[in-house]
Amino acid sequence: MNDQKHPFFRPLWRRIALVAFCAAWSIFEFATGSAFWGTLAGGMAALGAYQFLIAYKPGDDAATDKE
User: Fold this and answer.
1) Transmembrane ranges (predicted)?
2) Residue 28 included in any domain
């Protein structure tokens, strides 16, 4: 999660898909009775939602492209 400026994460759909996958995995783990793994996956979904959807600054990518 330290390399959130990687070019892979530029498209919004990839960032949304990553967060949605972690959230879906968390729901799956809770549904199968694995509260520990569900909590871990839910935490990753929450952290990913913050870093990739809320705090993500697309303007920062333009500066790294010119270097």
Assistant:
1) 12-28, 34-56
2) yes
Whole domain around residue 36: which residue ranges? 12-54
Q: Which two tokens stand for residue 43?
A: 């935490």
Q: What is the pLDDT of residues 14-32, one digit of tens each?
A: 999 999 999 999 999 999 9
Contacts of 27 (CB under 8 A, 6+ apart): 38
Locate 34 and state its tokens.
Answer: 């694995």
With contact defined as beta carbons under 8 Å apart, do 64 and 9 qualify?
A: no
Residue with tokens 């898909």: 17
* Orientation of helix 12-31 relative to helix 35-49, angle to 10°: 160
What letter represents residue 28's amino acid? F
